[in-house]
Design brief:
Distance between the termini: 23 Å
CATH topology of the domain at 3-88 and 155-219: Rossmann fold
Helix content: 25-40%
Strand content: 25-35%
Family: Belongs to the ABC transporter superfamily.
Structural class: alpha/beta
GO molecular function: ATP binding
CATH superfamily of the domain at 3-88 and 155-219: P-loop containing nucleotide triphosphate hydrolases
Keywords: ATP-binding, Nucleotide-binding
Protein name: ATP-binding cassette domain-containing protein
Order of helices and strands: EEEHEEHEHHHHEHHEEE
Number of helices: 8
CATH architecture of the domain at 3-88 and 155-219: 3-Layer(aba) Sandwich
Strand order of the largest sheet: 6-7-8-3-9-10
Largest sheet: 6 strands, mixed
CATH class of the domain at 3-88 and 155-219: Alpha Beta
Length: about 220
């Protein structure tokens, strides 16, 4: 994936007449970092869900390298091209290492055990904790697993739902810097949505989401 484009995208939940997203447009390129600011209940998570192919827009279309996402195999798209972390972290009831091994399986990647262990160590887990069940880890340690999931991903599109909450027990700026550097080195597109502006300095482009509209604010020189 090199380019993802939103064309007049709207989303209205079933049994509702109020649009959460209203005729939004945007272009997201690999090698760039995008930060989308918005208050609570402005549709940030809905937007990420649409970008990830988890929710279908009710109007408009999403183009991935010029191809309409709705006409593609969305299971393959999510497995091979997307790494998406919502605020609950998406972990299963198993060890930290097993969670990363499952990520490899779902994304159709070979199981690179040594690399997975190294990523968990870089994220801050000890060898003992790497093999410990997620339920026995502290909240801070589980958030280290979230970080490791990103660092082992081969996906070209990385989506983060409010890092101030996702990494609430860690140093948010340090974590976002690490993820941003990883994405730039590996020519990935990183899209962050948040109500906090703590880490906006790492973005190439700053956007705002308000009243269902996605608005470009400014480009930030690197």
């Amino acid at each position: 994936m090199k380019q993802l484009v939103l064309e007049n995208v709207s989303y209205c939940p079933k049994n509702s007449t109020e649009k959460i997203l209203d005729q939004i447009n945007g272009e997201f390129l690999t090698g760039k970092i995008y930060f989308i600011l918005g208050k609570k209940q402005t549709g940030k998570t809905t937007l990420l869900s649409i970008l990830a192919g988890l929710v279908r827009c009710t109007e408009g279309k999403i183009l991935v390298d010029g191809e309409d996402l709705s006409l593609t195999n969305q299971d393959d798209f999510r497995a091979e091209k997307i790494c998406c972390l919502f605020q609950n972290g998406n972990l299963v009831n198993d060890s930290a290492l097993a969670n990363l091994e499952l990520e490899m399986l779902l994304s159709k990647q070979p199981n690179r055990t040594d690399e997975l262990i190294n990523s968990l160590q870089i994220a801050g887990l000890t060898d003992k904790k790497i093999k410990t069940n997620i339920k026995k880890l502290t909240k801070k340690e589980r958030q280290m697993v979230y970080l490791a999931k990103i660092l082992v991903s081969r996906a070209k599109l990385i989506l983060l739902d409010d890092p101030s909450q996702l990494f609430s027990e860690l140093d948010e700026e340090m974590i976002v810097r690490k993820i941003a550097d990883f994405c730039r080195r590996n020519d990935k597109c990183l899209v962050i949505v948040s109500q906090s502006n703590n880490a906006i300095k790492f973005a190439d482009e700053l956007w705002g989401l308000n009243g269902g509209k996605l608005l470009f604010i400014k480009e930030q020189p690197r």
